[in-house]
């Protein structure tokens, strides 16, 4: 997903990193923390309610690698990709479906096994629809992230001017 930032702001940021690297890095970190937390909320809001474990696993982080900063909204759960993109028809293993039915629907024994087989049949014939929670969440949050960046640039300008006095 691409974001559009004013090139004047990017030039200011480049000059700020040269003139006041600690202030610039602090504002960049502040922006990334705010942006990733905001986008995390947008993604979680669009994650299917039935995927409570998936919702809870979505995290926002700012990673620092030497001079670079990286904002990340992600999950470590391997089934997030099929939930995001959907699947073609396939026959999933029955055991995880039975566990899901027991946990989420509160069914036991024969009722759980029966419900899991019906879900398995439907997935085998129709696949699963794409939830698109990550790409839809980021798209919905685009304007706010761009505003957060512009606000950060204004704060950075004010801090540099204040530090120069």
What would your notes on this structure say?
The protein is mainly α. The chain has 2 domains: 7-78 and 130-164, no CATH class; 87-128, no CATH class. Helix content is 68%, strand content 8%. It contains 7 helices and 2 strands. The protein has helices at 7-19, 21-46, 52-57, 80-85, 94-105, 109-126, 133-164, and strands at 59-65, 68-74. The protein has a two-stranded antiparallel ribbon. Helix 1 crosses helix 7 (133-164) and helix 5 packs across helix 6 (109-126). It is elongated and about 70 Å long. 18% of the residues are buried. The mean pLDDT is 89.
- Please state the overall shape, judged from the principal axes of the Cα atoms: elongated
- Counting DSSP H or I runs of 4 or more residues, the number of helices is 7
CA(first)-CA(last) distance = 39 Å
- Major sheet summary line: 2 strands, antiparallel
The average pLDDT is: 89
Give the amount of beta strand, in percent: 5-15%
Strands of the largest sheet, in order across it? Answer: 1-2
What is the topology?
Layout (H helix, E strand, L loop, with lengths): L6 H13 L1 H26 L5 H6 L1 E7 L2 E7 L5 H6 L8 H12 L3 H18 L6 H32 L1
Antiparallel strand pairs: 1-2
Helix pairs in contact: 1-2, 1-7, 2-7, 5-6
């Amino acid at each position: 997903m691409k974001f559009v930032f004013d090139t004047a702001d990017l030039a200011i940021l480049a000059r700020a990193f040269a003139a006041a690297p600690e202030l610039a890095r602090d504002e960049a970190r502040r922006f990334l923390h705010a942006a990733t937390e905001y986008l995390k909320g947008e993604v979680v809001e669009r994650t299917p309610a039935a995927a409570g474990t998936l919702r809870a696993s979505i995290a926002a982080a700012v990673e620092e690698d030497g001079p670079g900063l990286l904002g990340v909204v992600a999950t470590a759960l391997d089934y997030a990709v099929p939930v995001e993109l959907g699947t073609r028809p396939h026959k999933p293993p029955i055991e995880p479906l039975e566990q899901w039915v027991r946990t989420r629907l509160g069914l036991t024994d024969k009722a759980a096994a029966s419900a899991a087989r019906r879900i398995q049949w439907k997935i085998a014939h129709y696949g699963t629809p794409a939830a698109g929670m990550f790409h839809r969440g980021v798209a919905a949050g685009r304007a706010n992230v761009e505003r957060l960046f512009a606000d950060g640039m204004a704060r950075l300008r004010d801090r540099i001017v204040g530090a120069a006095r």
